[in-house]
Amino acid sequence: MATSGGTRLLGLALLCAFQVLALGEARAAPPAFDPAAAERLERRSAARQGRLLLPLPGTPDTQTLLTRLTASGITLGERMLIRVFKAESELEVWFQKDGGAFALFATYPICFWSGTLGPKLREGDRQAPEGFYTISEQQLHHGDRWRRSLDIGYPNVFDRVNGRNGSLILVHGGCDSIGCFAMTNAVNAELYELVSATLRRSATHVHVHVFPFRMSDANVTANATSQWKDFWSDLKQGYDSFERTHLPPHVSVCGKRYHIEDAIRGGRDAEGIELCEQDRDLIPDHLQTPDKSPGSEASKAPPPPPCSTALASCRRWVALRDRRANGNVVATHTRKNSKLR
Q: Has 180 been annotated as catalytic?
């Protein structure tokens, strides 16, 4: 009898423990609006099993890039901006036309991204980031796995001032990823060509805005209970600014938060993300990087290569030049390292 009573007490204790654990998990991770989660997981599964049908529905014809540019009145190499919407699994490319407002050129389906809605916090959390980033010529990635991919520049100054770490968050090919955005090989090749042409001909950087979802009032309201609602409110300011002006907004970080200022047509162009003086001492020592503010030595891009980066030999030349300039290896990121994202 005593044994039976002891067993019942043990069972009740275990039940209570599981209930407390479940309640804690529910409070720590409120639900988020992520309608495409099941679809992207199915795409990754299909790709792993060799049954993914390509191109994905809604993919522009990557065989007719120059024709599509001409039809849109866009010259290859014009200033461009990329917007990513995680919940919808979509990536937009916008180009500036005639030195004025930016116009939408193409919308591409994202085959796969990992994690959930919300920002990336640390190395190894397998989370795709959110925020405002820039790609410079040094971030045209030539690693051994993804030889022509785009490093979006995570962590930026906002991430670092908030103690977030990680590295090598890419827009790359394929349909599998740990923290990156996998676009399929054909789409990735087109994106690389567009970005590299812009960096060679008209700009020192390409803006990349990564949002959890299309930040309409309805979508923001649907996620009003999320732990990231304040962060997303700041991202929405950048989203709304571009929707109003069709110009990349000026982005700064102060008080550990993003601050947005509308760009004015004919005014100064938006550059990299600026960090206010009062926040400079808030970046932990292990996340300090050389000053890359506009005009600094670290921000100066190397001269364009004396060859076309469409050629493998030219890309090897660029990688060797960058290794020598930076004192480290920029072209030998291994598959093992990529799993830390």
A: yes
